[in-house]
Structures are given as structure tokens and as C-alpha cells.
UniProtKB/TrEMBL annotation, chain A:
Gene3D superfamilies: Bacterial phosphonate metabolism protein PhnH. This is Phosphonate C-P lyase system protein PhnH. GO terms for biological process: organic phosphonate metabolic process. NCBIfam families: PhnH_redo. The keyword Mitochondrion does not apply. The gene is phnH. GO terms for molecular function: lyase activity.
Automatic annotation (TrEMBL), chain B:
Its EC number is 4.7.1.1. Belongs to the PhnJ family. Keywords: 4Fe-4S, Iron, Iron-sulfur, Lyase, Metal-binding, S-adenosyl-L-methionine. It comes from the Bacteria. This is Alpha-D-ribose 1-methylphosphonate 5-phosphate C-P lyase.
Length: 211, 288
């Protein structure tokens, strides 16, 4: 079993962080974790997490953070590989997680109760790292708010309703809320809690309208 | 003309890239992502001791160290000038410990660390402006307790800030606050834009660049993402106004910049010049 990490931990994680920072500050823009960002990044074989998700975890996790991994995603020794490379602890429950590696389906139905922070310390909240099967610009989800000049559209694929509905609910609880880094293979984007999310019907050709 | 200085040879031995250890950088990076997600909210972070005293920009430096990459071009300004002690020292520091290229030209820089000014040249998308902040809490001079101010932010209890501005009007006839003028970010958090002159406040609104703020002594960081609404607090009958000057810059003739008063002799002689040295120089070159 091979557990690959960054070839150059200092510079690869810096470039990866900058990509995350610009994704978080310009929600909905797609970026790719190419060879320019991180060379030869390989997630543990047999795990469903892609290059972008794996590089995100390697960049942000260390022995001060606790990570919760959705059971369906914890395959191919993913948790062991992450602990081995970063020293991150596995959170015993979602409510104690700094980072949570989830599928969009994790947020449907009886979703785990992630930390949303408090009104005085909204930063003490879980950051979701979502593993998606599809992630495209120009979809039915219309984003606006800080970091977006006008509006930006996003497609998170089939079964993304639960995820986007959960993230849309952030706005009502602001400043408490969940921030999400959406990943799909080598692509990533971010949807912080400050983003306003609405769904538009693209079949009818209705263009994205500001709420 | 290439205005970027590329340093010869590797960075100084014995230090991690950009001085801070990776563990500290990760902690600050996690804080920065939260700061961007909650615009204007002050995120506490485990500030480290830097090889310079508090008050010289240790907060800004820790942010710069966490953000900076080996391919970045760095610019450092102090009150708009590239050639003052603070700016020269911090630039030399990162040249040594990170081996990065530096510049004084605003348009060439990827990361700009600043003390108390925003460059006159509008920043573009992708550039990061990092502010050095002495006191990050705008309510601190009204309420000394951190527990109380944190609660005031949580409850959006900002009436007292307007009382302070009103007292200005009652005493002076106008809002006499000229720097560190409080702003409201995205309609939620009242935030200290650091001691920039209020002349620069309009540049915060819907800016194209990302703006990060670091306070080393107080161990707080916060952010204003690009394209974010930033309003300066005011009253309907006393709208927010910026400073104006009767004379143009004595060097470049600009009428739309922030001017510093320079005393030239002991006979009352004085001149007004742009505080942004790079902007002034590039304009003076154009004219010449």
C-alpha cells in the first residue's frame, strides 16, 4: 500500500493553500490542482477522495486538528494515511470535527451535527471537504455575496440538493455556519457561509437573478 | 525596464522558508480561511514572537509569511512609501528568509504588505493586500473588556459606535475621525480598517483584491474578500466624506491622491506631496 504525500511539503502546501484562499475568497470559481500547484499528488489507492480533496487535507490538517470522515469514504486506509502524514486526530463525532470529509449524501436526511461555532466564536466551526462526482461551472445553483462581483453559477451534479440546501441555510444563521470546500477529482471550489445560494431552473432558460 | 529585484542565491540558512515553521503557518492559514468566510470577524490566532518588537508590523509579517510563495513578488509600504525604515526592513527580511523577488511597483506585486495606506493604483484581482494592524477592535476605546466587545459583535450591538461619531459632531460640528474610520463589512461586522486615512476607506468597497489584516500583539486576524460591500459609518445629515486638499502634489501635480505635508524650513515653508511614493514617481516620470 502506498501513501503519497507532497513531494515538497513546504512549497506544495503553500501553493495549495493559495488556491484554497482564492477559492474561499471568490466562491464558486473552479480551480484545478494541476502539476503547477502540486506535483504528482496521489490520494491513497482505493479511496474515493480525489487529488484536490487529498491535497486539501494534507495542506490544512495537522496534530492540532480533528477530522471526521464519512464511513463510506473511509476506504483504502484513508484515515490511517491522513494520520500518518499529518498527525491529525480522528474526531469521535461530527460535533467535534474541525474538518469533515463528506459526500453530498452525508448531508441528507439524518445528517450528522457538525459544529457551527457560536455567535461569539463563529470561527470554531467545521469546514466540510466535500467529495463530488460532478463539479462544473454554469449549473442550477446561483451564488452571490462577498467575493462575487455579480452572480456565479455552479453545478454540483446529481444528488447535490441536500448539500446545497444545507449550505443555503447558513445565511439564516450567520455568522454561525459551515464552510465548504467542494472537490471533484483534481478540481475544487469553495462555498463559505457568507455566500447566498439560490436554485434556478435552467430548463426554462431563466437566467440567474439576484435575490 | 524590469522593476522587480530578483535575489541571487538561496535564502538564509537555518530558517524555514519565510521564517515561520510549517505548524504555525498552517494554524494561521486555517484562521485566514475562516476570516475570509466571515468577512470582518476577528479570528484569534496563536501569534508568534517575531524578530522585531510589537508595533512594527509583526501581525502583518506573520500573515505575509503564511501566504507568501517562492514565485511571488513582494512589495512593502509604510504610510505609502517604499523607502521608509519599516518598509525597507520588512522587505529585506523576506528577501533573506524567503528569497523572494521584491518590487516597489504596485502593478508588479503579487503580495503587498502595508502599514496605514492603500496604494493609489487600484489593485487587480489576484493581488493580496496585507495590513499591519495595531488595535483590531474598533470598539476597544469605548469598551475595554474583550468579553464585552465580543458579545457586542455577537449581538450586532453597534449603537455606541454611532454615539462616538455623534459626539464628534456635537463637539466639532463634523465627524472629526480622520483615520481608522470604522466600517461595516457586508452589512454585518463593524471593523477597524487599520489606521489608514479615511481617504482610503472608499477603496475597500467592492475592491478587486483580497485584503487581509493581522494584529500581532492582539493576536487577531481578519479579512475583507474581493467584491464585498464596505460602508463607512455615518449619518444621513452628516454623510461620510474624505479629506481634500487645496493644492496639487508638489512633485507630480496629482489632485486626486492622499497628500502628506512636508515642512521644508523653519520659516513656515511647507509643501504637499503624494504619500504613495510609487504612484507619485511613475506620474512624475510620465510628465517628464
Amino acid at each position: 500500500m502506498q501513501w503519497h504525500a507532497f513531494e515538497s511539503p513546504v512549497h506544495d502546501s503553500q501553493r495549495m493553500f493559495r488556491q484554497l484562499l482564492s477559492a474561499m475568497s471568490e466562491p464558486g470559481t473552479l480551480a484545478a490542482v494541476s502539476d503547477i500547484t502540486v506535483r504528482h499528488i496521489l490520494p491513497p489507492a482505493g479511496s474515493a477522495v480525489g487529488a484536490a480533496g487529498w491535497a486539501t487535507l494534507l495542506t490544512l490538517c495537522d496534530l492540532e486538528t480533528s477530522v471526521w470522515i464519512a464511513p463510506e469514504l473511509n476506504t483504502g486506509g484513508l484515515a490511517d494515511a491522513l494520520t500518518f502524514h499529518t498527525g491529525a486526530r480522528m474526531a469521535p463525532s461530527a460535533a467535534e470535527a474541525d474538518f469533515a470529509l463528506v459526500l453530498p449524501a452525508t448531508l441528507s436526511g439524518q445528517a450528522p451535527a457538525f459544529r457551527e461555532g457560536s455567535d461569539t466564536h463563529p470561527d470554531r466551526s467545521t469546514t466540510l471537504v466535500v467529495v463530488l462526482a460532478e463539479l462544473e461551472a454554469d449549473g442550477p445553483w446561483c451564488l452571490s455575496g462577498p467575493g462575487i462581483a455579480d452572480v456565479r453559477n455552479l453545478d454540483v451534479g446529481q444528488g447535490g440538493e441536500a448539500l446545497m440546501t444545507r449550505l443555503a441555510a447558513n445565511r439564516a444563521r450567520f455568522p454561525r455556519g459551515l464552510d465548504a470546500i467542494l472537490t471533484c477529482e483534481e478540481r475544487l471550489t469553495a462555498v463559505p457561509r457568507s455566500t447566498c445560494i439560490t436554485q434556478v431552473q435552467i430548463e426554462e432558460g431563466v437566467s440567474c437573478m439576484l435575490p | 525596464m524590469n522593476s522587480v529585484d530578483r535575489r541571487e542565491g538561496p535564502p538564509a540558512d537555518g530558517y524555514n522558508f519565510a521564517y515561520l515553521d510549517e505548524q504555525t503557518k498552517r494554524m494561521i492559514r486555517r484562521g485566514l480561511l475562516k476570516a475570509v468566510a466571515i468577512p470582518g470577524y476577528q479570528v484569534p490566532f496563536g501569534g508568534r514572537e517575531m524578530p522585531m518588537p510589537y508595533g512594527w508590523g509583526t501581525g502583518g509579517m506573520q500573515l505575509t509569511a503564511s501566504v507568501l510563495g517562492q514565485d511571488d513578488v513582494l512589495k512593502v509600504i509604510d504610510q505609502g512609501a517604499d523607502d521608509t525604515t519599516n518598509a525597507v526592513s520588512i522587505r529585506a527580511f523576506f528577501e533573506r528568509v524567503a528569497g523572494v523577488a521584491t518590487t516597489t511597483t504596485t502593478t508588479e506585486a503579487d503580495v503587498i504588505q502595508t502599514r496605514h495606506r492603500i496604494p493609489e493604483q487600484p489593485l487587480r484581482q489576484g493581488q493580496i493586500l496585507i495590513f499591519q494592524v495595531p488595535i483590531p477592535e474598533p470598539l476597544r476605546f469605548i469598551e475595554p473588556s474583550e468579553v464585552e466587545t465580543r458579545l457586542m459583535h455577537a449581538l450586532e450591538e453597534y449603537g455606541v459606535m454611532h454615539v462616538k461619531l455623534y459626539e464628534d459632531i456635537a463637539r466639532h460640528g463634523h465627524i472629526a475621525t480622520t483615520y481608522a474610520y470604522p466600517v461595516k463589512v457586508d452589512g454585518r461586522y463593524v471593523t477597524d480598517p487599520s489606521p489608514i486615512p479615511k481617504f482610503d476607506n472608499p477603496k475597500l468597497h467592492m475592491a478587486e483584491s483580497l485584503m487581509l489584516f493581522g494584529a500581532g500583539r492582539e493576536k487577531r486576524l481578519y479579512a475583507i474578500p474581493p467584491y464585498t460591500r464596505v460602508e463607512s459609518l455615518d449619518f444621513e445629515d452628516h454623510p461620510f466624506e474624505v479629506q481634500q486638499w487645496d493644492v496639487p502634489c508638489a512633485i507630480c501635480g496629482a489632485r486626486d491622491t492622499f497628500l502628506d505635508e512636508v515642512i521644508t524650513d523653519d520659516q513656515g515653508g511647507r509643501m504637499f506631496v503624494c504619500s504613495d511614493t510609487d504612484y507619485c514617481q511613475s506620474r512624475a516620470e510620465e510628465v517628464a
